[in-house]
């Protein structure tokens, strides 16, 4: 007998197939397979419409810092919906939720970042940041400074500008991107260095070499033409790539020397992920402009922000003219109320410190202990509650499988089957659990990932 829940699943799958176009998906192929319907979530767990319980090792899309089902956030949203469901900031108005949020952010952000603009997604924040960078140079009467530099494998979002900034090349051909005026430099991906032909440099030598590629490129393009360099403190969607210690100080030196604005994209690394409020604090970076989203509201509401460091704030806010920019939903009261409550909850639970001092080190230790000798794993790397495992054909070699992505996808599917959400980026297995994850939940994640990696190793003749 076909159960009621199964009928419901079929019903939603049919509606989805008929009417819903999915992001980053071959929708026709998905429709043949049948989509998974997620119906509820609590803590670090999700449930699908068939009643399967799944542990979310990815915090959704790297965003659910406080875990699912937080009642304080829900209450804050409900209250704002009742009291002030909408109003904007265009016509000499503001609202208490948004001003409190801006003021709170100013206390958490790196020093000097006291002026905040709001948007609705990471992509929009990055798009806005590039406009603000252009505006800054126009105000400084250096309108020829227009080239935006960023890195290979970077992910900064999907608007025309954010996708142009992104260095994941499959994001470009469908849309004739990147736009003119965008330039890329290599990224400090040490595990891939040998395969990319850099030989056997140690991590710090490699970090310096790659940082100096930025200097070479700025000199090639002409410092007078380069407006900005954009980067994530740790590259997320590009493969969870941690910079060697020498990398960021050298980048900082180069940006200062050639008067290039440093835009730091904290969309993943913001809000406690690396054990500080911001990745810029973890790596002692002093950005001119920061973009943030995701963990700002733990993903409970769509909201993002852009903070201006002192030199940009000083010029832009003293321009004595209208800033011709803003969205209907910039600083939406409900999203602001939820984000504000989220920061309060994170502070009360001491989540950044928990990631730095207890649960983060526990997570990293358990991953190292479990996988450092595994025949399919070439490297286990991580910081805080962010980690990556490289699946490789021959572990001592730092070389990749010839058909990049096949083994990773195979392993990712086993994870799904066993009730774990992990993500495969090429053949790199990635984890970023909620910052509230407990030690037993980490044990469950590690055990499920071990099962999936063992089965994958077996299928590819490595176990
Ligand atoms: C570093 C980074 N920047 C920007 C974005 C884009 O954010 P959104 O999907 O909210 O537009 C993402 C999304 O994953 C991201 O990881």
Can you characterise this structure?
By secondary structure, the protein is of the alpha/beta class. Helix 7 (160-165) links the parallel strand 5 and strand 6 (182-185). The two termini are 40 Å apart. The chain has 2 domains: 36-66 and 353-459, Alpha-Beta Complex (Aspartate Aminotransferase, domain 1); 72-348, 3-Layer(aba) Sandwich (Aspartate Aminotransferase, domain 2), CATH 3.40.640. The longest helix has 21 residues, at 439-459. The strands form 3 sheets. It has a 7-stranded mixed β-sheet with strand order 4-10-9-8-7-5-6, with helices on both faces. Strands 1-2-3-13 form a 4-stranded mixed β-sheet. A 4-stranded antiparallel β-sheet has the order 11-12-15-14, with helices on one face. It has helices spanning 4-19, 27-33, 59-62, 71-83, 96-108, 122-139, 160-165, 203-221, 247-257, 279-282, 310-317, 333-348, 351-357, 359-371, 406-417, 439-459; strands at 38-42, 45-48, 53-56, 115-119, 147-151, 182-185, 226-231, 261-265, 289-292, 304-308, 377-383, 386-391, 420-421, 423-425, 428-431. It binds pyridoxal-5'-phosphate. Pyridoxal-5'-phosphate is lined by residues 61, 121-123, 126, 155-157, 232, 236-237, 265, 267-268, 293.
Short synopsis of the structure:
This protein is about 40% helix and about 15% strand. Helix 5 runs parallel beside helix 12, helix 14 runs parallel beside helix 16 and helix 15 crosses helix 16.
